[in-house]
Amino acid sequence: xKKFTIALIIALPTIALPMISAAAADVVSNRQQAFSSIxxxxxQVDSELNNSDVDWLKVGxxxxxxxxxxxxxxxxxxxxxxxxxxxxxxxxxxEKFNQLMLQMNxxxxxxxxxxxxxxxxxxxxxLNSANKTCKGCHRTYRSRW
Length: 145
Prior knowledge:
By secondary structure, this protein is an all-alpha fold. It is 81% helix and 0% strand. The longest helix has 48 residues, at 2-49. The model is unreliable at 11-22 (pLDDT under 50).
């Protein structure tokens, strides 16, 4: 029994480390997919808001997707989830990053609420607010390489 315990203690790091690495890779992949989808869906919303006859049901569905992607991103930047194109400042100086993420998500929530109320001005304001935080965040926290 003692030999088995010692063997397990020795083998555990080699078994667990790949699992941890795979989980971290999944988180990075999920956040990259969320960011890509945010970019695509934001363009769709912008296009819809520029139509003379806005399809508010479609804007509502798209804005719900944006809110959900924001929720994914809120849990995708734990210290163990490094990687991708994110700069280390996200983890070493998270205050501004977290503030920008919150502002982005508030913009998406405002967009969603405006779609429920069918308020074009508020919808545009919510989308513009979220898009501005995306640009500011990329300049500060996203590596070009």
